[in-house]
Input
Amino acid sequence: MDSIFLIAALVGGVSLLYATAGQAGGTAFLAVMAVTGFAADEMRPTVLALNIVAAGYATWRLHRSSTIDWTLLRRLTLPSLVTAFAGGLVVLEGRPYFILSGLLLIAAALLMMLKRDTSNGPERPIPWLLAALAGGGAGLLSGLSGVGGGVFLAPQLVAFGWASPKRAAALSPPFILCNSIVGLAAVLIAGQRLAPATTVYAAGALAGAILGTAIGLRWMSGRATRLAMATIMVFAGFRLLLR
Output
């Protein structure tokens, strides 16, 4: 029982950190499960469920403040729903899942370390085809691994000048929410099940999302936060690769 509450506390902590940057924390949730030794068939559905809780709250707050670009979100999300569902139906057993998840954690950590805080130029309109490719690719990774996809989508939007960091951060939670709902439905259809204590972990994720969205990180710079989280994700990624 103590280990359950410890994991819930870890989930809440990473949820808080990610919420300050507009992310649900799927990659960090996956890292927590990697470090604490979750079974492979429980990791993906549990991460998706936690994504729904954290991203759902963030989306509600962003909608209330009218900061979501719904037009751009539709362009990115509609193709991703198809690929997220398709990816969720694919069940990678044991070693293949650990390899995929480990590589995604390491890739996400590199993207996080390279992310810039400011935009270098004006935003450019994103063509429909490129929006479909960007959203569809992130959706596929979301369904296959359980991560929400926002950590891969947001850097693309900023790097190609399609959205400012602030705008990209506002797009991530609703994108993660939609893909996680569809992905979880497909995963459950495929026969995988949630971890027994998912409700407790979800409470931690929600508490972290509320605190992170409300107060932000005042005691640590954004760059320091990213480096700390990236270090944890690299460690967890290699742990999965060697598992």
